[in-house]
């Protein structure tokens, strides 16, 4: 029988009596474990060996545990400090004990939290009373740390390991151990004699011209054999969705806006006719930055915005009759919505004076101090957009949404009237989640009020919206929790396996 060289070596190294691990065979043959594993599976397919798999748990110490091995557990040091401070059965002031123990920083809290749990004594009213007959030398956790350091984690009880893991003093990991054992057929073939065949993994010009291809053994590729996982780079699903939205809006005749993430409250709120004493403008809803205020605001726009807040716009305008100060308007915040970009563009600051018809959009991040849940994060992507034209109506706005969302297969839009300080009429958009059936809010919209447009120098109608990119992605892909998609709790498996959608 002829076999490739590595298979012959593995077959000869295997035993019929006791399984041998792949690692031990690889070390003996001076070959990589991956090559030995591949050969073992190929021999198993021939019925010459059996491959056994088992799971092996390993335990290692963290850096904190390494420190405790050298200095002692904090609770043990606290106990010894109490004895040194004269507390052999008597109470001692906590400060005196801590000083005697040499503990500081987080180690003090760790010591106090474990002192009574282990029966080293009592803590009451700022005093520590150590137990005279406690035996810190037999502390189970300290002994366990020494055993693990010596490579004998098997001698440590499961309960102690669990406690050490809760204290972040150990790290547990599992790995698959493969062992190889000769079968009866393998023994028979070895006794009959196994020869090494010349093996090649590709057909070359030299093999063809020389005719040697007739006598060589070609490697077989076992596509079912284990191989290391390689996660190649790919576009984030949210980024792919943003690019798709951009393509759709550009196709509908829109131009893209750009602007700062950190901006003056003037552009974020004041230009949107949001009063300065509005509760949404407190630190509970938006993020204020401790940086110097914005130095320059366009005087003409600033004066008209202030007038709109104080006195209103037009003959019937009322304004808010509430405090308005330029100092607050200049303060820098992270923008709570990308409508600040719309204010910059409509004012002429970004692109100069604009004449209708105009269509603009942006897909940018906004930041709000929301309560985190399956549909809210502290930062999110907003699809901002507006259209400037003559005689716009709510029907034009609804028709724009219908055309836009149809590009993503969403045809069951629902609309509900709402209130915004800067639009009237206003309405929210809702769509049905394809998996849960839940009706999800996906955006807000309306016709900009005169109190916003006139101070910016706009004499035409402007309809506008802010749509949630993450919510759109959830409706398209069926994702149920935005925290799985991005943020600190992102599901990497989801990002690696999410199918490409067009």
> What's the story with the biggest beta sheet?
7 strands, mixed
- Residue stretches low in confidence (pLDDT < 50, at least 5 long) are none
Which strand order does the major sheet show?
A: 11-14-15-19-18-17-16
Instruction: Provide the CATH topology of the largest domain.
Output: BirA Bifunctional Protein, domain 2
* Overall 3D form: flat
Which CATH class of the largest domain?
A: Alpha Beta
What is the straight-line distance between the termini? 53 Å
Strand content: 15-25%
| Class derived from helix and strand content | alpha+beta
Q: Report the CATH architecture of the largest domain.
A: 2-Layer Sandwich
How many β strands by DSSP? Answer: 19
CATH superfamily heading of the largest domain: Bira Bifunctional Protein, Domain 2
Helix content: 25-40%
Rg calculated over all Cα atoms: 36 Å
- Determine the mean pLDDT: 87
Q: How many structural units, i.e. domains?
A: 3
What is the number of helices? Answer: 20
What does this structure look like?
It comes from Halapricum desulfuricans. One of its GO terms (biological process) is phenylalanyl-tRNA aminoacylation. It is found in: Cytoplasm. It catalyses: tRNA(Phe) + L-phenylalanine + ATP = L-phenylalanyl-tRNA(Phe) + AMP + diphosphate + H(+). The protein has 502 residues and is of the alpha+beta class. It contains 20 helices and 19 strands. The chain has helices at 5-13, 22-29, 33-45, 63-71, 74-84, 94-101, 106-115, 140-149, 158-166, 184-192, 205-210, 237-251, 265-268, 299-311, 326-329, 339-346, 394-406, 450-453, 469-477, 492-497, and strands spanning 2-4, 20-21, 49-61, 92-93, 121-124, 127-130, 170-182, 195-197, 199-200, 217-218, 255-256, 262-264, 332-334, 358-367, 379-389, 414-417, 423-432, 439-448, 461-468. The chain has a 7-stranded mixed beta sheet with strand order 11-14-15-19-18-17-16, with helices on both faces. Helix 5 packs across helix 6 (94-101). The chain starts with a strand and ends in a 5-residue tail after the last helix. The relative contact order is 0.09.
């Amino acid at each position: 029988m002829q076999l490739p060289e590595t298979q012959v070596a593995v077959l000869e190294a295997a035993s019929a009596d006791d399984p041998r691990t792949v690692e031990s065979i690889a070390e003996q043959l001076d070959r990589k474990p991956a090559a030995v594993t591949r050969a073992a599976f190929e021999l198993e397919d021939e019925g010459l060996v059996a491959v056994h798999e088992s799971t092996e748990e390993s335990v290692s110490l963290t850096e904190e545990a390494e420190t405790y091995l050298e200095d002692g557990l904090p609770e043990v040091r606290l106990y010894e400090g109490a004895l040194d401070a004269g507390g052999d059965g008597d109470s001692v002031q906590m400060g005196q004990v801590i000083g005697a123990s040499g503990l500081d920083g987080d180690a003090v809290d760790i010591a106090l939290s474990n002192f009574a749990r282990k029966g080293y004594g009592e803590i009451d009213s700022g005093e520590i009373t150590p137990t005279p007959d406690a035996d810190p030398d037999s502390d189970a956790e300290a002994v366990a740390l020494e055993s693990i350091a010596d490579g004998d984690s098997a001698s440590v009880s499961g309960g102690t390991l669990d406690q050490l893991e809760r204290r972040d003093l150990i790290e547990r990991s599992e790995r698959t151990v493969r062992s190889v054992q000769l079968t009866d057929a393998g023994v028979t073939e070895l006794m009959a004699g196994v020869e090494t065949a010349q093996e090649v993994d590709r057909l070359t010009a030299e093999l063809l011209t020389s005719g040697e291809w007739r006598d060589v053994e070609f490697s077989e590729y076992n596509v079912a054999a284990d191989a290391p996982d390689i996660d190649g780079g790919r576009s984030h699903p949210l980024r792919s969705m943003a690019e798709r939205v951009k393509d759709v809006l550009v196709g509908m005749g829109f131009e893209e806006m750009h602007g700062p993430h950190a901006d003056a409250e003037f552009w974020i709120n004041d230009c949107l006719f949001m009063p300065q004493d509005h509760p949404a403008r407190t630190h509970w809803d938006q993020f204020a930055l401790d940086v110097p205020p914005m130095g320059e605001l366009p005087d003409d726009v600033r004066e008209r915005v202030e007038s709109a807040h104080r006195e209103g716009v037009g003959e019937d305008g009322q304004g808010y009759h509430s405090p308005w100060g330029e100092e607050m308007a200049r303060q820098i915040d992270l923008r709570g919505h990308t409508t600040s970009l719309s204010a910059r563009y409509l004012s002429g600051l970004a692109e100069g004076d604009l004449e209708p018809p105009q269509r603009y959009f942006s897909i940018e991040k906004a930041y709000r101090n929301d309560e985190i849940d399956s549909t809210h994060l502290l930062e999110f992507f907003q699809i901002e957009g507006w259209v400037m034209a003559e005689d716009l109506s709510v029907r034009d706005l609804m028709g724009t949404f219908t055309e836009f969302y149809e590009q993503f297969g969403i045809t069951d839009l629902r609309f509900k009237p709402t209130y915004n300080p800067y639009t009237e009429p206003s309405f929210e958009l809702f769509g049905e989640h394809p998996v849960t059936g839940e009706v999800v809010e996906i955006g807000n919209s309306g016709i900009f009020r005169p109190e916003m447009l006139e101070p910016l120098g706009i004499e035409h109608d402007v309809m506008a919206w802010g749509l949630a990119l993450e919510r759109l992605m959830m409706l398209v892909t069926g994702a149920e929790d935005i925290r799985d998609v991005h943020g600190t709790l992102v599901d990497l498996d989801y990002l690696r396996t999410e199918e490409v959608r067009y």
